[in-house]
Amino acid sequence: MINIPKGTKDVLPSEAYKWHFVENNARRIAALYGLREIRTPVFEHTELFLRGVGDTTDIVNKEMYTFLDKGDRSITLKPEGTAGVVRSFIENGLASGVLPLKMYYITPVFRYERPQAGRLREHHQFGVEIFGGKGAETDAEVILLARDYIAALGAEGVELNLNSIGCKHCRPKFNEALKEYLRPHLSEMCDTCRARFDKNPLRILDCKEEACSAINEGAPKTVDFLCDECREHFEKLKSILDACGVKYRLNPKLVRGLDYYSKTVFEFVSTNIGSQGTVLGGGRYDTLIENLGGPSVPAVGFGSGIERMLLLLENTGKTVPAEDPVGVYVAGLDEEGRKAAFALADALRRAGVSAEIDHAARSVKAQFKYAGKIGARFVVVIGSNELESGEYTVKDMSDSSSENVKAEEVAAYLKEKLQ
User: Fold this and answer.
1) d(Cα 349, Cα 48) in Å, to the nearest integer?
2) Domain-ending residue, one of 261, 287, 315
3) Residues 263 and 256 sit within 8 Å (Cβ to Cβ)
4) Cβ neighbours, 10 Å, residue 6
5) Residue 102: helix, strand or coil by DSSP?
6) Where does 244-363 have alpha helices with state H?
């Protein structure tokens, strides 16, 4: 037997309704904010992620699925959604259209890492990107959209963490102060942080190693080094969130794990899904589009793992509502009855009523048992007597009552009953 690859998971028919619940709410909330869907390829040229995500990130250094195709081109399965959307924005000349351009996506992403709760090597993200909004209002709208998405799912115990990591003008001053603080502790830090010290010291603050976390407790704060523009942007964002009643925690260690972020970064975190508690994270990335060869267009967005969100709902006792079962089961009692059952099921489906029929030549008793298992609300019985009389027996499975209905009126009758 060939088994499923490590770090992947089948979504079985019995579980798919949970995914539909999350995805449908994501689409609904995105539509309320005026976002439209974008779909990009599952794989891209590797250079896109090297330049976009950053060569000091764990994703690029350790986690990408990269291979040579038959034309000896380096191809990578996308490890995150933003870079591909930016590539599409540039390649398709979308900057010449109406801005801001507000988009969302639901996509698989691939990272070669140790599988853990809610984080697989193939997992799925709901992501939001807004291109062309420079002000703090855009940051606030993205955060509010994230809040509404989480609330729509009924997720509880989720906290918003907020920080500003500055821009290309004020970040160098912070980096120098951070390096000055960290330099005496280099020998105590993990290999990854020592490697980041010269290339990207900001990322050291994101380290989860116990020794590095302890050292970082006394590190300088990015907000203390913001330039006037970044400080004004952050203060305005906080004032908008305050006005909307959004609770948040200022977290000076929050830097996010991708190199392209600037100014605002945020995460919605929970203690109910283990040590990796982020269920949604994002921020502003004003220079990414330009860095990838496009025009200078500011941008902000977020990504949220669907598996992690489902794990959070499960761990907090949230019951995901099941999808509606089959409305009608049509039972044919004999050969002619089965033909009539097939025709009635066809008519019901064309009328917008879900219907199921027998596919295994079951007995009447077995058909009723099957109808009960699939949760059918009504069972229509068609045999020689029903065909002769021109009336079909309709049984309401909720109370076991029965009614005879003219054959030509059954579809309309059941459609009305199921509304």
Assistant:
1) 46
2) 315
3) no
4) 9
5) strand
6) 288-291, 306-315, 335-350
Same domain, 133 and 158: yes
Tokens describing residue 216: 């970082």
Same domain, 310 and 334: no
Give domain status of residue 131, yes or no. Answer: yes
Name the amino acid, one letter, at 127: G
CATH of residue 125: 3.30.930.10
Closest CA to 313 of 161, 162, 160, 152: 152
Residue identified by tokens 């990207």 is 200
pLDDT for the residue numbered 419: 85
Cα–Cα distance list, 309 to 52, 156, 336 (Å): 26, 11, 50
Mean pLDDT of 312-316: 93
Q: Would you say residue 239 lies in a domain? A: yes
Residue located via tokens 């089965």 = 338
CB atoms within 10 A of CB 318: 14
Which segments within 117-253 are labelled E, that is strand?
122-131, 158-164, 249-250
Reported as a single tens digit per residue, the pLDDT across 218-251 is 889 999 999 999 999 999 999 999 999 999 999 9
- The Cα–Cα gap between 138 and 33 comes to 11
What gap in Å lies between CA 361 and CA 370, rounded to an integer? 12
Distance (Å, whole) CA 301 – CA 299: 7
CATH number assigned to the domain comprising residue 391: 3.40.50.800
Query: Tokens in use for 57?
Result: 């990130």
- Please name the residue ranges forming H helices in 102-187: 136-153, 171-182
Q: What is the pLDDT of residue 129?
A: 98
pLDDT at 192 over 90: no
Kindly tell me the sign of the dihedral angle through the C-alpha atoms of 89, 90, 95, 96.
negative
User: What is the residue-averaged pLDDT of the chain?
Assistant: 92
Q: Which of 256, 283, 315 is the last residue of a domain?
A: 315
CA geometry: angle at 134 spanning 133 and 140, to 5°? 75
Domain span holding position 67 = 16-170+226-315
Question: How far, in Å, CA of 241 to CA of 216, rounded?
Answer: 28
Question: Token digits for 311?
Answer: 């794990």
Q: What does the DSSP 8-state code read for residue 272?
A: B
Phi, psi for 44 (deg, rounded to 5): -140, 170
Query: 299 and 356 share a domain?
Result: no
The total of other beta-carbon atoms located within 10 Å of residue 402's CB is 11
- pLDDT for 198 equals 82
